[in-house]
Amino acid sequence: MKESWKYASRQYQPEDTVVSIGSVFIGSGEPVVIAGPCAVESAEQIVETALAVKEAGAHLLRGGAFKPRTSPYDFQGLGAKGLELLAQAREMTGLGIVTEVLDPADVPLVAEYADMLQIGSRNMYNYPLLRAVGRQDKPVLLKRGMSATLYEFLMSAEYILAEGNPNVVLCERGIRGFSDFTRNTLDLSIVPAVKQYSHLPIIVDPSHGTGRPEYIEPMSLAALAAGADGIMVEVHPRPHRALSDADQALTLTQFQEMMKKIRSFLEWRRSYGHSYLEHP
Ligand code: PEP
Ligand code: MN
Fold first, then answer.
1. Could you write out the DSSP letters of every residue in 115-158?
2. Block mean pLDDT (10 aa), the chain, length 280
């Protein structure tokens, strides 16, 4: 085994990693649903969303307080105030919180509030940030860089693991291609590939992957059919008024409807027993 390819590899650890976030287990065989707005905007917005997604069956709440925006003039997130609002939403719903950290200097602050730290696509190659989240205890959700190969993706996970944090969940969020009908190209084939070469869990984000609300349900079901350990979906009570990613958020009702379909798919899948999908 190459030295550069160690802790993240299936050879190093043949059994699947299961990451626990409180009473939620990612990688256990039962898919996990992470839902919430792109960004935390106000107490009302995050609490209303949290209550609705919890009721619909989500397991964890997402919401950005520190937002990586393409334009420096766009809404950058509420920062520390956003973290407090997320904590308030957790208090009211019991849902664990997943939120992004952008700056290595903010890792201690974000880790104080979050149950899982998200590393965004733009930061998958930010090695000082990867090392910083590797040196703290909270689980990490590592999103795939928008042009990252499987090897680069797994090596970024390796940075976190090598610092001593074994709780890494990967997230496919679409890669740059030439699609003129979706925001990105959701590369679902990386799901079985990750399962083949690594023991780390992998979830799929069809919201950034497609950028189109009407494609989120089919691609969520496809992700689960491919063996993903969960999905992460953007949900907003009033998508047209969202301060970021307004075009891709599901309404609370759309999310609720999608969750019904996901539940029936999972029931159908369970009826197949363990033989439904063997990892490559
Ligand atoms: C997000 O999930 O809020 C986000 C910014 O996504 P990505 O890093 O995949 O663009
Ligand atoms: Mn977003």
1. SEEEE-GGGTT-HHHHHHHHTSSS-EEEEPPTT--HHHHHHHHH
2. 80 96 96 98 98 98 98 98 98 98 98 98 98 98 98 98 98 98 98 97 98 98 97 98 98 98 95 78
